[in-house]
Design a protein that fits this description.
7 helices; globular; mainly alpha; two-stranded antiparallel ribbon; single chain; about 5% strand; about 180 residues
């Protein structure tokens, strides 16, 4: 039960940081279509409805029950959220919830951006995986998969904007640094 509170504290602390740090960002210069919001909503609805219609499938245990999985998941969640927070701090006022280019946008290549081009997404994927691992149900695999697909779609939208904004610099950066997983992808 204390592990559950720890997960809540981690995600709550992350959300609080995210809300506070969103204040004072640069103004948006270029934005993608609001289609992104529809894609997210549709994905959440599909998984939610699937879980409600087939609870016997989604609630099946994926792993044998063990406190070890919960603690491993807690560590992964903490590391993922910490990495995302680090990346968000380095990105500074260039950050936006929606794929967009800010006025006087900078191409950030320092800190965690030396390791991967989208470290916030890397951190969030690790955190979601850790949280889902702790719960250890088949449905949690669907959640991790849905989050991964959504972040990759968003990543592609952002990369198109960045490639237009920084044609030469972003092309060189893409050649040097992987998108989500260092040295792999």
């Amino acid at each position: 039960m204390q592990v559950t509170y720890a997960f809540g504290a981690l995600w709550g602390g992350w959300l609080l940081f995210w809300l506070v740090s969103a204040q004072g960002n640069k103004r948006t210069a270029t934005r993608t279509s609001p289609l992104w919001r529809f894609i997210v909503l549709a994905a959440v609805l599909v998984v939610s409805l699937g879980w409600r219609q087939f609870p016997e499938f989604f609630e099946q245990p994926l792993l044998p029950p063990s406190a070890v999985w919960a603690y491993i998941g807690l560590v992964l969640t903490a590391c993922g959220l910490g990495f995302a927070i680090w990346a968000r701090r380095v990105l500074g006022t260039n950050w936006s919830a929606m794929p967009s280019i800010k006025k006087d946008h900078e191409l950030i290549q320092r800190g965690p951006y030396r390791l991967v081009r989208h470290p916030i997404y890397t951190g969030l994927l690790l955190a979601v995986f850790g949280t889902c691992l702790a719960e250890g149900r088949v449905g949690n695999l669907w959640v991790v998969g849905m989050v991964a697909v959504l972040l990759i779609v968003k990543l592609k939208m952002e990369e198109a904007l960045l490639a237009r904004q920084f044609p030469e610099a972003y092309l060189q950066y893409r050649r040097r640094v992987k998108a989500l997983i260092p040295f792999l992808y």
